[in-house]
Specification:
Structural class of chain A: mainly alpha
Largest interface: A-C, 112 and 113 residues
Distance between the termini of chain A: 33 Å
Number of strands of chain A: 0
CATH architecture of the domain at 74-260 in chain A: Orthogonal Bundle
Oligomer: heterotrimer
Shape of chain A: globular
Order of helices and strands of chain B: EEEHEEEHHHEHEHEEHHEEEHEEEHEE
Distance between the termini of chain B: 37 Å
CATH topology of the domain at 74-260 in chain A: MetI-like fold
Largest sheet of chain A: none
Strand order of the largest sheet of chain B: 6-7-8-3-9-10
Chains: A mainly alpha, B alpha+beta, C mainly alpha
Strand content of chain A: under 5%
Number of helices of chain A: 16
Helix content of chain A: over 70%
Structural class of chain B: alpha+beta
Helix content of chain B: 25-40%
Order of helices and strands of chain A: HHHHHHHHHHHHHHHH
Largest sheet of chain B: 6 strands, mixed
């Protein structure tokens, strides 16, 4: 399911400008479709965002600020940050390792492995939470053993971390696998023939080449980790000041009819979403620019593009991705 | 039907693709638009087809302006470089498309469409493949489906954009002969675009050589090859040796370039005076004395023998002689020989590659 | 000796092609271990729990319970309608984004991803803010006799918002890849713009459109956060299937929760399979 989240190519501006006179839609079609598209986007995307901001400030700045500095809210923010601080690095590391194995080697069961990595995207977050309860809950597989040892998973931080780990498991790997595949292993193999060790090859060749894709995957992973609701709400137990993450805190406030406070906390999460979108666009721009440069180099090399004057275009073009 | 393009100018942003181009295609002829990429040849073809609207100028079919007539009603057949076959339709559906989208009152009956498609597929030697999808065909077969599809609507002119561009060399040569014969058979006014000089010279009745949005020369293959009108045409059609120099007797000291085709040299034992012209020597000297130098390489494993001569200033001169000549003279690598041109063409140096 | 033999056997079993690149064993090993711990153990816990029930028990809890059955109906119908709405408007949005130039286009393109980035709880209360009877649009709609929040239409609205990017982001590359030559060829052959759209463009875009629909539908079936706020969660009326799992867990009915979970899991797998087939079809269509 994540395949399409991560492979958005963005707007292709030149494409639209180059249309010839025949494959352009009639003016009335263009106006109607544009009106429908923009209207739909405003109704379903812009208005919800605006309403959060307006309601958050509806009872004044003081209420807004006190909602965010309330001890319960602060502990919810802290728990959210702690969760993300554990989950994002763990899944990043896993994503790198898994992408390396899957993109660089061919082995039996490879496509099954890819499907399994995708699995958390296909499963309802509520089911993810349910699974963890069945494993770690008091009547679950390991629950009683663990509680004998004094370890509590469900209704406590480890459960929240595990649930988030499960939900955000595929983001980085799904981003890196196609990227590594499209880059091929030529550069890595030549590094090896030049005498680099495995780690040298990884840190000097592989990582620099995938760094934007990696960052992109981490951004998406982080956004989901901080915002997850369904899975976390099942394993958290809603203990105020202890096991509430920020999205759960929003729910508690909402159920208490503290609407302004609920919207205030929600607006914090909305800001996080906007920030994520902004970073995502920046990284996408960077990725597409690298791809464009690489494509241009390839065209010049194969001589498809007429180069005037300069007979050695390679010396003047800003060369390959590492710059 | 004749085609006239009158003073066509077409710009894409800053780039001038066609700069005041005029062209007359005679009824029934097969015309080639030849030029390097970016020369405007494809744009001209698309303007004639109605796919692009010219910024200035007019397009006339049989004297009647079609500039503002929509491509749908212009009655042209167009074969795209990559064929643009509809992937989700069979060969039959592709060829029948133009007939099936006609307004109801003009649309032929089902049986008629079927017959017409069968007839066309026989014409392009694809009978029996009507049920195939494009991805099940070879490149040459797709090309012919595209042609049949274009012909199905009985166009008044046929336009082909790089018709053999995407094919491998052998299929290309076959299709070239085939297109020539097909044209003789159906006698439809046809224009095709190509960057391959052999293709243009071999297939077309007349060749239009284009460069940088302008027409350099229009003529029969013989005319453009043997009497190039400009340095560009000279350079573009076949290999040639260039010698910089001044036009003899021109007091304005205008820079000029002399061209000699490799097969227009004769190879001689060096004369007593071993003095040879340098690279800036004038056409006069070149004509009387030729170029003397050491043979660097001989490629004799082909119909004509190619010899590379290294002149005194180090530049290479390419010479082509027949096998008989080669046997008779028996030149070998390392010897010094003189290449004397039988024919020199001099152009003012107003163009750069 | 034994170790080497084992290693060779492992390599033979896994049957990988020879490669000079290092790190195959360790990276695959770590991947499988992590995958096992985080995904496979919990997954098998659910399956084992559900299959540990007698068939009758399973039937009673997952199918025969009218409240559970009603929740399936609500989930399916709302996800279906939302998917259809998105198929239409997502297609239009993608078409406009790829084909037209207008001010604010990049912004529009960026904001399509909002539902991916916005926590579902935020989407949920935002929609309540809009569609509750005291909300910006809710009062006006109720005047027209349409109750949205805390009713079935509210669920559809939430799922529409959540599913929109799936359709848009599936359609965009497909529309970009349409060759303009096909459209030009159709026009030269005499087709009107409408005929070109119906006969040339649409057939190529059907597979990606179905894929986008299936993705949005699958997401809609599993969605919880946004619906939870706006649905009102009235038994037999606006309870969705994921909510039933939560309710069963709150009643400590682990078997009931696992049974419903298994039904949903099977549905997810079926959809996942369908989506993979659709994507293969798309690739087939778009490669000559």
């Amino acid at each position: 399911m994540a395949g399409i989240i991560t492979h958005t190519t963005g707007v292709s501006g030149q494409h639209a400008q180059q249309r010839s006179r025949v494959d352009r839609d009639p003016v009335w079609v263009r106006w109607t479709l544009s009106f429908l598209a923009i209207g739909f986007a405003i109704l379903f995307l812009v208005l919800p965002l605006v309403v959060v901001g307006v309601y958050a400030l509806s009872e004044g700045l003081r209420v807004f600020l006190s909602a965010l500095t309330d001890p319960d809210a602060r502990s919810a923010i802290r728990l959210t940050l702690i969760t993300a601080a554990i989950v994002v690095p763990a899944n990043t590391l896993f994503g790198l390792v898994a992408a390396w194995a899957i993109a660089r080697f061919r082995f039996r069961g490879r496509s099954l492995l890819i499907t399994l990595i995708d699995l958390p995207f296909a499963i309802s977050p509520v089911i993810a939470g349910l699974m963890l309860v069945l494993v770690f809950g008091l009547r679950g597989w390991f629950g009683s053993t663990l509680s004998d040892w004094g370890v509590q998973v469900i209704f406590s931080t480890p459960g929240i971390v595990l649930a988030t780990l499960f939900i955000t498991f595929p983001f980085v790997a799904r981003e890196l696998i196609p990227l590594l595949e499209s880059q091929g292993s030529d550069q890595e193999e030549s590094a090896l023939t030049l005498g680099a060790s495995g780690w040298q090859m990884f840190f000097r060749i592989t990582l620099p080449n995938i760094r934007w894709g990696l960052l992109y995957g981490m951004i998406l992973c982080n956004a989901r980790a901080m915002g997850e609701f369904g899975a976390v709400s099942i394993v958290s137990g809603h203990i105020r000041g202890l096991t509430n993450t920020l999205p759960l805190h929003v729910e508690v406030l909402y159920n208490d009819y503290q609407l302004a406070a609920a919207f205030a906390c929600a607006s914090l999460l909305a800001l996080l979403a906007l920030f994520t979108l902004f970073l995502k666009i920046a990284v996408e721009w960077k990725l597409s620019r690298d791809a464009r440069l690489a494509a241009r180099d390839a065209i010049i090399e194969t001589g498809l593009l007429p180069v005037r004057g300069d007979r050695s275009p390679r010396s003047t073009s800003p060369s390959t991705p590492t710059t | 039907m004749s085609i006239e393009a009158l003073n066509i100018t077409k710009r894409f942003g800053q780039f001038v693709a066609l700069d005041d181009v005029s062209l007359h295609v005679r009824s029934g002829e097969l015309l080639a638009l030849l030029g390097p990429s970016g020369s405007g040849k494809t744009t001209l073809l698309r303007v004639i087809a109605g796919l692009e609207l010219p910024d200035e100028g007019d397009v006339r079919f049989d004297g009647e302006s079609v500039r503002d007539r929509h491509v749908r009603k212009r009655g042209v057949g167009f074969v795209f470089q990559h064929y643009a076959l509809f992937r989700h339709m069979t060969v039959l559906e592709n060829v029948a498309f133009g007939l099936r989208v006609k307004p109801r009152h003009e649309r032929p009956r089902r049986a008629e469409i079927h017959d017409r498609v069968g007839e066309l597929l026989r014409l392009v030697h694809l009978d029996g493949l009507a049920g195939r999808y494009p991805h099940e065909l070879s490149g040459g077969q797709r090309q012919r489906v595209a042609l049949a599809r274009a012909l199905a609507v009985r166009p008044r002119v046929l336009l082909l954009d790089e018709p053999f561009g995407a094919l491998d060399a052998k299929v290309r040569a076959e299709l070239r002969d085939w297109l020539r014969r097909l044209h003789e058979e159906i006698q439809l006014t046809s224009v095709f675009v190509t960057h391959d000089q052999d293709e243009a010279l071999e297939v077309a009745d007349r060749v239009v050589v284009m460069n940088r949005g302008k027409i350099e020369q229009i003529g029969t293959p013989e005319e453009v090859f043997h009497s190039p009108a400009s340095a560009f045409v000279m350079d573009f059609l076949g290999q040639s040796n260039r010698f910089h120099g001044r036009v003899p007797g021109n007091s304005a000291r205008q820079e000029s370039i002399s061209y000699v085709r490799p097969h227009e040299f004769e190879l001689l034992k060096p004369s007593q005076s071993t003095r040879s012209i340098d690279a800036t020597g004038s056409g006069d000297q070149l004509e009387s004395m030729g170029v003397t130098g050491e043979i660097r390489k001989i490629y004799s494993a082909s119909a004509l023998v190619r010899i590379e001569l290294s002149a005194a200033d180090g530049r290479l001169v390419h010479v082509q002689i027949s096998q008989e000549e080669f046997q008779r003279l028996a030149p070998s690598v390392g010897q010094t020989w003189t290449a004397r041109p039988r024919r020199i063409r001099v152009f003012a140096a107003d163009y750069q590659i | 000796m034994i170790r080497i033999g084992l290693r060779e056997r492992c390599v033979r079993v896994i049957n990988r092609q020879h490669s000079v690149l290092p790190g195959f064993g360790i990276s695959l090993g770590l991947t499988l271990m992590y995958l096992g711990l985080v995904v496979l153990i919990p997954l098998s816990a659910l399956v084992v729990k559900a299959l540990g029930m007698t068939f009758e028990d399973f039937w009673q809890k997952a199918i025969a319970d009218p409240r559970v059955m009603a929740s399936y109906r609500v989930s399916l119908s709302a996800a279906l309608v939302a998917g259809l709405v998105n198929s239409v408007f997502g297609f239009i949005l993608a078409w406009v984004l790829v084909r037209y130039q207008f001010p604010g286009k990049r912004l529009l393109d960026a904001i399509v991803d909002l539902p991916f980035a916005l926590p579902t709880a935020v989407s949920g209360i935002a929609l309540v803010g809009l569609y509750a009877s005291s909300g910006w649009l809710g009062g006006w709609l109720e005047g027209l006799g349409l109750k949205v929040a805390f009713a079935w239409p509210g669920i559809v609205i939430a799922l529409t918002m959540i599913g929109l990017p799936f359709v848009v982001r599936t359609m965009q590359p497909a529309i970009e890849q349409l060759e303009s030559e096909s459209e030009e060829a159709a026009a030269i052959l005499g087709a009107t713009r409408g005929q070109t759209f119906r006969r040339v463009i649409l057939p190529i875009l059907v597979p990606p459109l179905l894929t986008g629909f299936a993705l949005a539908f699958a997401r809609g079936l599993g969605e919880f956060g946004s619906v939870y706020f706006i649905a009102g969660n009235l038994p037999m009326k606006t309870e969705i299937a994921p909510l039933m799992i939560l309710i069963k867990l709150e009643q400590y009915d682990y078997h009931g929760a696992a049974a419903i979970g298994l039904v949903m899991l099977v549905a997810s797998f079926a959809l996942l399979l369908l989506i993979n087939l659709l994507q293969a079809w798309t690739r087939h269509r778009s490669s000559t």
